[in-house]
């Protein structure tokens, strides 16, 4: 799975590094999962379709009634078409410099939350819908005042969201310029019960797969594949013992591509098949 460097991928003039950038993104085929190196903080104003994103130890899913503000860094995301077989969103990128200027101008010197949440979910309303409609990329091309106009749009949406969400949004904005990096073990352990592959967890840790495996072995004194499998199978056993779920309900969630492989691994570890517990 290749890594997509965004917004660089969308900028026509590769010699430019704009502080503010708008891009209209459309597609007509589902993208099950993409590796994205997000080089700038970004608003994702989803208009048609669904989107799920993973960052370090957390994930979130939104539909067209919501928008996302995402922290720069390594993301895994899934984009799904709607019933009309189309996916459409407007992306609004901004640099830390622009955000710092805004915070200095309009907010107090507050500290970010200790728990650094990498995304902020925005509930769309009539004002935001109108703002999204005004944010077409062609509006800012070949315009004598495009930079100034885009700067005003940037301030507009942030001021509106500060008014809408208050301190919660202000603290979040300050957290975006924090240089703290999520610890390796937090990322690993927050994804223990996800269905992410080793390669995908390594990507969220900003590591190659080989580097991730070495680092993991140093931290846990065990190979990551075996460690994760044991943790996920133990979780599967707990879910089945609850009596409400069957093996067919959970094998994908536990990280297996098919029910047969899950059943074989489960029986090898516990000596009984999943159906013996759930029946």
TrEMBL record:
Keywords associated with the record: DNA-binding, Transcription, Transcription regulation
What Gene Ontology terms describe what this protein does at the molecular function level? DNA-binding transcription factor activity; sequence-specific DNA binding
- Is Protein biosynthesis there in the keyword field? no
Superkingdom of origin organism: Bacteria
A Pfam cross-reference name: HTH_18
Please state every residue range assigned to the domain named HTH araC/xylS-type: 182-279
PROSITE patterns given in the database record: HTH_ARAC_FAMILY_2 (PS01124)
Q: Which InterPro entries match?
A: ExsA-like_N, Homeodomain-like_sf, HTH_AraC
- Cross-referenced SMART domains, in alphabetical order? HTH_ARAC (SM00342)
Under what name is this protein listed?
A: AraC-like DNA-binding protein
Read off the lineage from the record.
Answer: Bacteria, Pseudomonadati, Bacteroidota, Flavobacteriia, Flavobacteriales
């Amino acid at each position: 799975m290749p890594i997509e460097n965004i917004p660089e991928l969308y900028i026509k003039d590769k010699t430019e590094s704009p502080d503010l950038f708008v891009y209209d993104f459309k597609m007509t085929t589902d993208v099950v999962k993409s590796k994205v190196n997000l080089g700038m903080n970004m608003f994702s104003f989803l208009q048609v379709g669904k989107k799920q994103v993973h960052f370090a130890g957390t994930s979130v899913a939104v539909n067209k009634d919501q928008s996302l503000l995402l922290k720069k860094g390594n993301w895994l995301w899934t984009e799904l078409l709607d019933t009309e077989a189309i996916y459409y969103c407007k992306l609004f990128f901004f640099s830390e410099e622009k955000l710092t200027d805004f915070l200095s101008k309009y907010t107090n010197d507050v500290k970010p939350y200790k728990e650094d949440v990498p995304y902020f979910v925005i509930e769309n309303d009539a004002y935001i819908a109108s703002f999204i409609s005004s944010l077409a990329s062609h509006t800012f091309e070949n315009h004598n005042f495009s930079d100034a106009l885009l700067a005003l749009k940037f301030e507009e949406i942030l001021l509106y969201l500060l008014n809408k969400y208050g301190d919660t949004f202000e603290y979040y904005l300050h957290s975006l310029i924090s240089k703290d990096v999520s610890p390796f073990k937090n990322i690993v352990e927050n994804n223990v019960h996800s269905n992410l592959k080793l390669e995908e967890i390594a990507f969220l840790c900003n590591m190659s797969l080989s580097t991730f495996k070495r680092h993991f072995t140093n931290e846990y004194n065990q190979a990551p594949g075996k460690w994760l499998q044991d943790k996920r199978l133990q979780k599967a056993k707990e879910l089945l013992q609850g009596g409400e779920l069957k093996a067919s309900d959970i094998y994908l969630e536990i990280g297996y591509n098919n029910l047969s492989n899950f059943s074989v691994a489960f029986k090898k570890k516990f000596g009984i098949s999943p159906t013996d517990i759930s029946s």
